[in-house]
Amino acid sequence: MPRRHRTPPPSPLPQRDGIDPVRLRLPPDPDGVWGSVRDHLVARFGAAIGVARVDAMLREGRFAAADGPVGAADPYTAGRYVWFHRDFAAEERVPFEVGVVYRDERIVVADKPHFLATTPRGRHITETALARLRSGLGLPLLQPAHRLDRLTAGLVLFVVRPEDRGAYQTLFRDRLVRKEYEAVAPYDPGVALPVTVRSRIEKERGVLAAREVAGEPNAESRIELLEHRAGLGRYRLRPTTGRTHQLRVHMNALGLPLLNDPLYPVVREEEPDSYARPLQLLARALEFTDPVTGVPYRFESRLRLAQWPR
Predict the structure, then answer these.
(1) pLDDT tens across 288-300, in order?
(2) 164 included as an active-site residue
């Protein structure tokens, strides 16, 4: 018979700063190693945060089950769900706000500023567009339909109701969203534009920069010059695919690396963000037919690239 998966009960803990609590399901313990929930928590987290910290969190009621707080003496029960909030490291606040371009009962289209991550990841947890929007709009179930690089500014589509998320994600998966970006980069009259760049891009885990390799293309970008002055060009970029750093890689391959790019053509050592020198890349427009209502939409960012001479 097919194995049935039990649906977890709702979390007894509210979000904190727009971040969901961690959910654990206590694993089987056929040898009876863990006499109490504390024994398992110490075995699982003691090496990372210390036994004293686990005990302090238990005393403070930081661990909760569906039926109430988890105590240090609670007997171990395999399959029981336990929730808790992690201790977040202090994060420097990104000094720019998230704008809301459009909002209804299904979606939120936000203008994400440079330097703000889209979703919690790595060392960026509370300083993310998702956490800020959940808290600021009172929408704890909000989820992104796609993501934008932390250093890139512009439009991101979020979904209000979990049951709708798959429909909007499918738009991006099936390339039914027309995306337009704007960039500032050097102007070179020797580069013939417009041009469609196709190549194979790979990004290795733990390596900051993506790279082009031989093989069947998996990335395609249309690149147009809108205007130029003072040795710089303003470009319209239209990606057909969505590989990591695709536009940055393709512009660099043309000999037109984006202004203030810390990875292309040369990877610079990680350093504190220079808010006065943002990467000159902006997700300018999103265009799609709403998969729920059938209404065609085109949204345009209200942000501007600061380093285009005016």
Answers:
(1) 999 999 999 999 9
(2) no
